[in-house]
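re: that chain from earlier
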Amino acid sequence: MNRPLNRRSALAATVLLGLAATAPLAHAQSAWPTKAVRIIVPYGPGGAVDVVTRKMAQKLTEQTGQSFFVENKPGATGTIGASLAAKADPDGYTLVANDTTYSLLPHIFKKLPFDPSTDLVPVSAFVFAPMGLAVNAQSRFKTLNDLLADAKRESNKVSYGTGGPGTTPHFATEALGIASGVNFMHIPFKGAGEATTAILSHTIDFQIASTTGLMGNVKGGKLRLLAVSGDKRLAALPDVPTFTETGVKWPGVVNWTGLWAPKGLPADVLARLQKEIATAMASADMKTFAEGMGAEPRQVGAEAFGRMLKDSTDAWGKVAANTAFEKQ
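^ sequence. v structure.
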């Protein structure tokens, strides 16, 4: 004969049934990633975002046992790739990388195919790198003052390349021109890597870009840095002065790389991503990679990243107001 359950037994049975019901869901959530994760880089290969993201993808692959792969989708100042990510399923299997340029978007476009403040959620920022002004190693410009003097003699004579109008290097170079009282000729490319190739072929005179994208050619003797941003010289290149040390009243900007995900990303996946990125940045080889590129190997979580984006967007607004750039 079956006996009725007492209150304690009934409570225990209820708890067990609840655990059994939620176990599959909990397992499914904690199992991420169970398949390959695509990271869209909205610029061409070879630029700072591409270089740093590929290194991070390699570390995440090693740590999780699932493939994290980079897919380059360049164009429209990174908005083509970002828009693709914004429209993807928010399941953690599509991410998009970008740098400080993301905080420039509201100042570049009259209308965007997505809302950068809501359609993509910040995951984490990492590898904080100064920006350097690079010329061909055989360039006639031996110092930044040489370059600025030539630019002052003839407006729009000295040319520079970027990954496109409205990118961080574009606004940074225009800010340098404003601080120095000169006008440069802007030559836009599809990515920072193409701009670097143009310097190597003597097609353009110089480029301002993140040191993470320049350092390989600098160490290889193909490029020469005339100045770097920030308040101190790079340990890897102690002979290169800061912009301020050259007499320019412009400290430059520090560029960071970050990852975003489509709106609606599950909280547990966001937490896991931040944890894995933090683990990667704490690894010895990632520290060596970042420091070798003249960058600071640190990581900022989603909440702090969101605040940083707002501050950066506000700061770039002031630069945009003082340039001749017209929204597209």
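The domain at 37-129+254-321 is CATH 3.40.190.150 (D-Maltodextrin-Binding Protein; domain 2).
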